[in-house]
Design a protein that fits this description.
The structure is a single chain. With 457 residues, the protein is mainly β. It has two helices and 22 strands. β14 and β15 form a beta hairpin. The longest helix is centred in the first third of the chain and has 26 residues.
Length: 457
Amino acid sequence: MHYIYKAILLLILLNFSCSNLWAQEEQVKPNLRWYLSEDKTSYAGIVAVNQIWTRYIQNNPDQNGVAQYPDYDLGIRRSRLIFYTYLMDKVFIYTQIGYDGLTYLSKNKGLNLLNAQTEYILAKDKLHLGFGLTTWNGVSRYNNAKLLEFLVVDNPGFAYPVGGTFDFAGRQLGIYAKGTLDKLHYRVSVVKPFETGINELSTPVTTERINENLAFKGYFSWQFFDRDITLFPYMTMNNLGRQKLVNIGAGFYYHPEAMLVEAEKDLSTVDPILAATLIAAGSEHLLPQFADYFPSQISDVFLAAVDVFVDVPLNNSGAFTSYLGYYYNFFGPDYLRAMGKMNVSKMAANLALPQGHGNSEWEIGTGHIVRGEFGYMLPGNGFHNRIQPFAAFTWKNFDALDQASLQYDAGMNWLMYGHNMKWTLQYSSRPIYMLSENQNRISEYKGQVILQTQIYF
């Protein structure tokens, strides 16, 4: 009988030991950081991340509505290296290099400089002043999102409304100030946007204008409970219940005289003899083909947003995560721009829809956007092998389109080791706009499936 008691005691001890090991394992997070002083006020670190996409894409039809074959591919969404140094509570240096969007069609495979900033700590936590190529952005939480901690597979394209035009991968050169005063976190910037656009007197569509004007941006959030960690420029979109975060934010982006506005035809510029001939022949409708445009007006860019982010632990060891944001964009009348992430379609440009080929969609324009996300991490222990289903929706109402769109994302995160080792499977819908009787309306929806593997340390 005493052998049974010994066996039970041994099992209890083993269980206790395993529990302690499990607890220790949960607390140890891969972190390449080296302390440079005994009081740990100075340290240096490295962060490395790879995000790999395997995709099935239902491609956009051609301009006649003819369906196209789908694409299957594997690509590098992001591969990054981050180097940072924090010295004596006085200065912070942050540099990031990497490559985004590598597909089998990519020509340029070199590394890019993504961040290079020096930050002076004038009053710890309350006032930091920085200079360089940075992502201390305005408008919304999503414009400052942490790429390692998304709830969905990736940031929506509209989250970077001047991406690829006046900024580079969400970055701009400028001066910023940031800090936290009690429950208020703030970040404001004065930047010199990258030069882009045209310098014509008139243009048939609203487009970016070459200019040298400064832009101003900021984001302010009220943190009701725990504080966001803001050593780096990024804010989590999926904190897995590690803190009690209930934040309300508002932001803006203002770039004066940055756009040329769509111009109309000036019929008085048609040759008088040609005009008389067309009118006599009853072909007045052809006059605009031979007319020049009126001079374009100049417009500002003004963007604003309000949003709410909630990420809280639950009593059953699960976690609830949600985001809701409203965006107002003004780029000038009827501005519209399409985007397609890592587009691998080989359709000829002259056969494509106005919104583009492959997985392109109307992402950015003058108008209104509402974005919502909801996730629930199922009950479990620690952050090993946790399952987190999620869903999201995006409503877009752009002035240049005759119908608003409502699209959705749905999927699941498998958190092998928190965000450090994570699989994400997601399906996303995409509206297809066809031009019919001079109206841009939705004819159908297409979609794509993405499997992302993420590893970072």
